[in-house]
């Protein structure tokens, strides 16, 4: 979640056509206006805290000091009626893939430019030239045969 907050796959957010005049603070938006709220802007807003640009996965723990309301406002999968239909599947897949990789491989240090230095922004965002990682298969612990009688 924290990776998606700092580096949302859909950085631009979703376009919407205003059907009834909502107000946003001092602004009135006429019906028919097309609006788009920047996902990456909202997700790095100072509302997330003074450290909003810092990777802090602990803010997603249940005992985090971050207000629950704020975490509910996470827009990486959009929000409300047209929210991402595949969110639950995507979250489950991410957990399974990550757990499988970490269980079987260790990550080796590799020289990389800082993430985000060169991004390609289309509908989705990705690092220009890909993201190189080096993995080494973990040695499986040898199974110790049990002594007879136990
Ligand atoms: C990390 C993975 C994913 C991210 C970050 C993501 C994010 C998003 C976002 C931001 C939208 C725009 C919603 C809007 O218009 O406000 C969306 C829509 C949608 N997503 Fe995803 N998505 C992901 C994975 C998936 C997967 C795995 C599926 C299907 C298996 C899926 C199916 C859909 C569908 C059907 C919509 C259109 C919903 C609608 O317009 O009613 N997404 N997604």
Automatic annotation (TrEMBL):
Q: Which PANTHER family match?
A: CYTOCHROME P450, CYTOCHROME P450 12A4, MITOCHONDRIAL-RELATED
Under what name is this protein listed? Cytochrome P450
Alphabetized Pfam families for the sequence = p450
Q: Family membership, please give it.
A: Belongs to the cytochrome P450 family.
* Gene3D superfamilies cross-referenced by the UniProt entry: Cytochrome P450
């Amino acid at each position: 979640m924290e990776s998606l907050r700092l580096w949302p796959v859909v950085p631009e957010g979703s376009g919407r056509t205003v059907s009834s005049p909502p107000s946003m603070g001092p602004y009135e938006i006429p019906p028919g206006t097309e609006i788009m709220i920047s996902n990456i802007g909202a997700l790095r807003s100072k509302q997330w805290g003074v450290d909003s640009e810092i990777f802090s996965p602990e803010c997603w723990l249940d005992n985090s000091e971050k207000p629950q309301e704020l975490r509910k406002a996470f827009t990486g999968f959009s929000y409300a009626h047209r929210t991402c239909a595949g969110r639950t599947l995507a979250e489950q897949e991410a957990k399974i893939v990550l757990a499988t990789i970490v269980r079987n491989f260790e990550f080796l240090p590799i020289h990389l430019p800082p993430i985000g230095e060169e991004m390609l922004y289309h509908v989705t965002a990705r690092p220009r030239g890909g993201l190189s990682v080096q993995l080494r298969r973990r040695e499986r612990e040898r199974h110790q045969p049990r002594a007879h009688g136990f």
